[in-house]
Amino acid sequence: MPGLLRGVARTAVVAGTATAVSNRVSRRQSGRWAAQSAPPPQAAPAPTAYAPPPASNAPPPASDMDARIAQLTQLAALRDQGVLSADEFETQKAQILAG
User: Fold this and answer.
1) CA 15, CA 45: separation in Å to the nearest integer?
2) Are 78 and 84 spatial neighbours (Cβ–Cβ below 8 Å)?
3) CA angle, 53 as apex, 92 and 44 as ends, to 5°?
4) What's the pTM?
5) How far is the C-alpha of 99 from the C-alpha of 95, rounded, in Å?
6) How far is CA 69 from CA 9, 48, 93, in A?
7) Per-residue pLDDT tens digits of the chain, which is 99 residues long
8) Which three-class secondary structure state does DSSP give residue 21?
9) Comparing C-alpha atoms, which of 58, 50, 40 is closest to residue 83?
């Protein structure tokens, strides 16, 4: 009789462990599938052109070159923050230096 109870207990433990592992795998897979089927988060659209801030807020620069340097500095900051791509930065830089 003790051997029979031991066999039944062992079977119950194995079956319980298998059920727990199976449930855990199912939950993990359904979580992965849900993450794959979820729409990607919407990113804010990147600005296509740089517009300098209104001049009324800042004092007038001492010369035209100072204004260009300030604009280039702002462009570089936007590029470093990831707001502007390298191509957009180069385009805007060429416009500032040409103007």
Assistant:
1) 53
2) yes
3) 70
4) 0.37
5) 6
6) 81, 21, 10
7) 567 767 766 776 666 776 766 777 778 877 777 777 766 566 666 666 666 666 655 555 557 888 888 888 998 888 898 888 889 889 988 988 887
8) helix
9) 50
